[in-house]
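Lab notebook page, bench 4
Experiment: in silico fold of construct C2
Operator: M.H.
Input chain length: 323 residues
Purpose: comparison with the prior construct
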Amino acid sequence: MGKIAFVTGATGFVGSHLAESLLERGYSEVRCLVRSEPKWLAGLDVIQIRGTLSDATLIEQALEDVQYVYHLGAMTRARTWDELYSANVTSTMDLMTAIGNASAKVTKVCVASSLAVVGYADHVMADESTPCKPVSRYGRSKLAMEQALVDVNLPMVVIRPSVVYGPRDRDLLTFFSAVNRGVCVVPRGDPGLSLVHVKDLVRGIIESTESPRTTGETYYVSNSEVVTWEALRDATQSALGKQSTLVRLPRSLIMPLGAISEIAGKLTNTYPPLNLEKAREILHAAKQCSSNKATRDWGYSSRISLEEGVQETIEWYRTEGWL
């Protein structure tokens, strides 16, 4: 029997790319937890498990004969702490309990966390030794998840991605859309950020999970070079074939803009990407991380250049009518 994987969050941006990559790598079965609509999984040769992580019996049955569990299911933004805690901590622990009860055949569990757990940092570049002082509810919920996992007796690896981009991503779409309209607004004085293309990330996720050296460890996964906002704009302009005006936004305006965006979101019953929590992260949270530990332990390296990754992403957006 070939490799069998169970994937949560598979209908999302990163999870759907992961499911595709697992199939390409010859996994005999890829079982994906689906809450409602298959979304990006439509047409893929995966087994859809309809339900939620709170359904213990369903999850235990879905885990039969599974060797690798990839837990990417999460909530990245919400208006309340309770919503984030339930989605990112309680659901994760429900899954760990189900794995413990289901089978001894699980070789490794990979849990996706986030660079957001770092928050305030004494150094611009974070690594695994950097103390975690998250500034947002999302970052605190992911740190609470990691802390809860310390007492779980399962072979596990935790991955903290930097900012992820690529086809199907909606967060950086805001930036690309602005450049497409001829205006590029960036935070004044920002030192740049660590980015990772989704294909590099999912390769890192799979390789870290399959490596026997990573059990019990936590890793940052990112590109090897820090990307300035100006470099990201240049790559975007090149891909679009357009020029844009660079506007450096004073840092004093970022929190007010987050507040205004939240108010507008309440009027439309949405919670926008730019909100007070995200504004705090823009102002205070670490946005750069080193993947040196991942390189040392299992040979990780990013393969997709910024220019290549942005070009692919822009082309996909245009094909799908997002730009």
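Observations: The longest strand covers residues 29-34. The mean pLDDT is 93.
Next step: discuss at group meeting.
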